[in-house]
Design brief:
It is a single chain. By secondary structure, this protein is an all-alpha fold. It contains five helices and no strands. The longest helix has 29 residues, at 104-132. The protein is elongated. The relative contact order is 0.03. Keywords: Membrane, Transmembrane, Transmembrane helix.
Length: 134
Amino acid sequence: MEQDDKRITELVNKLMDADNLEKAPVDFTQNVMSQIEALSKSKATEYKPLIPKIIWWILGVGFVALLSYTIFSKPSTSEPIVDRYNLPELSLNFLEGMTLNLSNTLMYAMVFLVIMISIQIPILKQYFNKRLVY
């Protein structure tokens, strides 16, 4: 068995000595890297926003024009803006007539739930961030 291994080794050595190694062209690495760069600049990964910049500029100019018109336009009378544009009066007292009676057990449960959620969110965030690391 050892003799067979020696013969195979000698045969392989003779074949390797007789064979000439092919040399790569001088600029082989540069050619390969230029092809890789050409592939990495494909249009499939090019970022194109959903709303073009010109639309954002038009919206911004329109908003500034509307704002400046409402600020700098002189009212024809001295009446308040609510009366001038027939705006309804707003009442911000949504909870004025509302009463809320909660039992102590429900209050403790809600506080415990808030504490547990505030503990669990950072733990889950850390877990998912570790999973996304390559």
